[in-house]
Structures are given as C-alpha cells and as structure tokens.
Known about the structure:
Elements: H1 7-18, E1 23-32, E2 37-42, E3 45-46, E4 54-55, E5 59-63, E6 70-76, E7 86-92, E8 98-103, H2 109-112, E9 129-135
Amino acid sequence: MANSLGGLGSGIAEQALLHTHTAYLARLLRVDLEKGVADVQPLTLQKPLGGKGTPQPPVLGVPILWNARYKLGWGETCAAAGGLGRHLVMEPIRAGEIALCVVCERDISGARRGRSETPPAGHHEIKDSVVAGVIV
Length: 136
C-alpha cells in the first residue's frame, strides 16, 4: 500500500529513526575510574534528513558498568621469578580506547541516584548511555 503522504511520511519516519540511539562505538576521551564515569566521542556522524553528516558532540559523564572498568590482557611472567610464559592480567580501560556504548531505553538520571522515578518523555536519548565494554 502506498504512503498517502507521499515522500513526506517516509521522510518524517526516516528522520525519527536517525534520532533513535540504541548502541554506538565511541572513543574514550577521559576515564575516571574512581567516579565510574567517562567522557566519550561517538564515532558515527549525525545527519539531518537531506543534509551532510557532521560529528556528534561528546557525551560527558557516561557511567561505566562495573564489569567494563577493566579489560583482560596478557602479561609476561618474569623468568627470573621462576615463571614461564604469559599470564592473564586485568588492566584499567584508558582514554583513547574504543568503547561500546549502550543507550538505555529511558532517562537514567533517577536510577543513577538510586531512586525509582517516572522518567520524563523520550526514549533512547544519547545522554542515557552507559559504557558496556571496550574493543581490544
């Protein structure tokens, strides 16, 4: 069935989808493990309908999930201490690394303060992101 609004209806739907965020890759600009937050720069461009893509602004103070604050890596065992080969080590995530950020369905402001609240209107806003891990 054809859209009764012609191109206008599909254009409005496309524009709405462009502003729906679910997950994205971002560069970690700053990591504060004590506070459990990071500033991130989304690596995808934002593009208005019919316009040209431009970088998205950084997202500041993004919570880092507990299990995402460290990454697993390999360390060399010191032969002088009797060790052989390599062993698994946990390293803190650092600025410059690429993170997977997940956008929560609703506003997370109240939950970050430990409260259960009725969220304001809106879904999947990029300000409601959390860092879920890094790509090694």
